[in-house]
Design a protein that fits this description.
Elements lengths: L4 H17 L1 H8 L5 H10 L7 E5 L5 H8 L3 E6 L2 H11 L2 E4 L12 E7 L10 H11 E12 L4 E5 L2 E5 L2 H10 L2 E9 L10 E8 L2
Parallel strand pairs: 1-2, 1-4, 2-3, 4-5
Antiparallel strand pairs: 5-9, 6-7, 8-9
Length: 209
């Protein structure tokens, strides 16, 4: 059943309200998460000479912005949460845009890579084709999108105060292909565990003209 604009506003307001309320503890709880496998997956597929322009989509409190900056890249953060965006600015020194994922205003063909780590699953399924097209538009020709989401059986709904949409590989591939991307690779995380203990689906995509 199609969600109304009012329902989408409620999803956004409730989810962002949660992140605003827990911003400090979220920063502490995720500070030591090792996502180097994901960062490497994005960077190794970007063509051309570094440094690269990277959009950290759903940057949270800025942990990965700091990593990209230390590596010499030019990173810009984007998060819907006012509190997380502020923390990200303070901690990383990077430019950080506070934007609702459902009301994006992105520059055209600005970025070599988009790093969407644990972010796009917050977009309701019916809105994903539009949001993915906006990310496609923000990438330079041949640019690369990385995404990592908790996988599921194509269900969506509330998980406590956060809304999520949980896709299996085939459904996720169809969404990205329809948005104009070509798959470069995918894998499950954490590495080295049986599949049932790998809740995260990571995938890397190239913008095709």
């Amino acid at each position: 059943m199609k969600q109304t604009p009012i329902e989408l506003e409620q999803i956004t307001a409730t989810t962002l309200g949660h992140y605003n309320a827990v911003a400090e503890s979220f920063r502490e709880g995720t500070r030591d998460h090792d996502v180097s496998q994901n960062i490497d997956a994005l960077l190794r597929h970007i063509q051309g000479e570094a440094p690269f322009d990277i959009l950290d989509f759903g940057c949270g409190p800025g942990r990965d912005l700091q990593t990209f900056t230390r590596m010499g890249h030019k990173a810009v953060g984007l998060d819907g949460s006012e509190k997380l965006a502020q923390l990200a600015r303070e901690d990383s020194g990077c430019e950080v845009w506070q934007q609702d994922f459902l009301k994006l205003d992105l520059p055209a063909e600005r970025f070599d890579g988009v790093f969407a780590n644990a972010a796009l699953f917050h977009v309701p399924r019916q809105e994903l084709p539009r949001v993915l097209k906006q990310l496609w538009g923000a990438l330079k020709p041949g640019g690369v999108l990385f995404s990592s989401n908790p996988r599921g059986e194509n269900q969506e709904g509330w998980n406590g105060p956060r809304y999520g949409s949980y896709h299996d590989l085939a459904a996720w591939q169809q969404l990205l292909i329809e948005a104009g991307f070509v798959e470069l690779e995918h894998y499950y995380r954490p590495a080295g565990l049986p599949r049932e203990q790998q809740p995260w689906l990571a995938s890397v995509w190239r913008k095709c003209q």
